[in-house]
Amino acid sequence: MKLTLCPLPHKALSARLARSMGYRLLPLILCQSVHLVALADTTDFSPSAPRATSTDDLLQLAPFRYIPPSGSVSTDQPSQAEAEKPKRPAQQQRIVDLNAAGDFQAVGTEGLELIAKEKPDDELQLIVANSLAWTGRSKQAIPTYQALTSGKYANQANVALGNIERWRGRDDLAEPYYRTVLASDPTNDGALEGIEMASRELSPRTMLSFGGGKDSSDAQRRSATVNHRWRDGTGTNIMEIETSGVRDTLPGVESRQQDVSFRYQSLSLALKPSFELSIPTTDDHTFYGSARIKLFEDQLTLDGGRVNWGRMASNANALALQLSALHAGANAAINFSFGNLLARVDYYDISDGNTLLTSSVNMVSTWRPLGSHFKPYLGAETRGAKYLSPNYWSPDQGSGSFYGGLLGEWGEAGWNLYASGQIGARLFGDAGTSWSVGAGGKAWVSRDVALSMNLWAMDSWRNNASYRAQAATVNLEKLWR
Q1: Are 211 and 472 in contact (CB under 8 A)?
Q2: What's the fold here for domain 80-201?
Q3: pTM for this entry
């Protein structure tokens, strides 16, 4: 029986996540259309919204997208060697049978119970570890793989550990695992693919982004961004410098702004601190800055600072008024056996005297009724303001929506695609029925050049009227290695 942990192609977010995590998680960030009923922070058509407050942080941890590895489930007749193996005890054999049937959720759960009571053979431990990883329980999978790194399945275990580090955004830690495998097996497909994908994230990268969007209030935005990201020799300190420009229009009103931003994140320090500084280079020369820390093994992120609200609002009047805001936010990402819970809350004290509080919660289920490529999810979003402003969405009576949808993902090492759709219903306040769809993907046209695109559209309810919005972005990425 051949057992291996299949590497997952990259997204994502992002998108998101796109700064130290965001750009590496591009497919994830592209999938922020999952949060499309109310767009909890703003309606930002720009690909360069301030990261300290963008909704892609709800998806800061890469979701595990299961791709059945070749050989993990076989319908072939057992070989003579397999037939001659001693029969396993009933509990162990049940786990093997569940694995053959593709019930990896049950394999992981029952396998952990078995390992707590006894030490199964290496083959069974690898089955359990793979199932834990495929169903998003990497924390439990890691020690199970680590117990196999000196035995018959050492290469499979090391490739798997490298993949988990990549899923967690630590390509610098993933690379040594792949090199260990290649030292003994230079043609190992999993290690070769893993080290190539880790190299993409560790290499300096320049990205050009162009975006546009409009809504039913005739607000439009056009944007262009040039971003360069690089790391130091350790791979743990990530730097970005970016310049971007936006043009917002309303009937009879046009506002423009260019800015320059610098971002930094340390992956090796406690709390993994990161910060962003930006300054407009046109009329408004105010400094904006945000900082972020991570707690509880990256399950909780706290961030705050002074943000460029005029740009975040995607409204020509807000941009012309050079609105700013003091911001405090928190988001949590917790994996359970039944799904991944993502939640965020943000508070803004805006320079026009208004305040805004937004929240969102999203559960991506491990239940896959339509197959491994399709993920059902449920969620809710709220938004409330001190008073109603004509310059950005600020429901003084509050707004709350509930939604459910389906996210589909497909991909290999050189490309990925996604499509999502959802419908929503009113919970309270300035909300109503809604729908949203999104689609996009990324393809590596050569080893060091990639193209990506994402499209998004929604129909909802704002200010006691039907509201629609559409947006699109195109990105060109070049690696320097």
Answers
A1: yes
A2: 1.25.40
A3: 0.81
